[in-house]
Amino acid sequence: MYKIDQAATAAVVVLVVVVIAVVVVVVVVVLVVAVVVVVVIVAVVVVVVVVVVEVVVVVAVVIVKVVIIIVAALVVL
To answer: How far is 71 from 62, CA to CA, in rounded Å?
Structure first.
């Protein structure tokens, strides 16, 4: 009887340890996935900001060139 109780207790302890290990692994995987998702979102935002800034700079340069051409034409006239 005592050996059966001891075996049952050992089985329960092993089961609890396995369940805790699985929970820890799942939590770690979820955290890693969350970090990867955040990093990807930040990277996408940075790329979008860089592209928008480049477009704004190009448009500004074109506008400045057009203004310079108009002013030069007015000065010549």
So the answer is: 14
Query: What DSSP line would sit under 36-75, residue for residue?
Result: HHHHHHHHHHHHHHHHHHHHHHHHHHHHHHHHHHHHHHHH
As a whole number of angstroms, the longest Cα–Cα distance in the chain is 113
For 20, the enclosing helix (H) or strand (E) is helix 2-76
pLDDT tens for 2-49 read 666 787 888 899 999 999 999 999 999 999 999 999 999 999 999 999
How far apart are the C-alpha atoms of 70 and 77, rounded to whole Å?
11
What is the number of residues in the chain? 77
pTM of the model: 0.59
Tokens 């302890």 map to which residue? 13
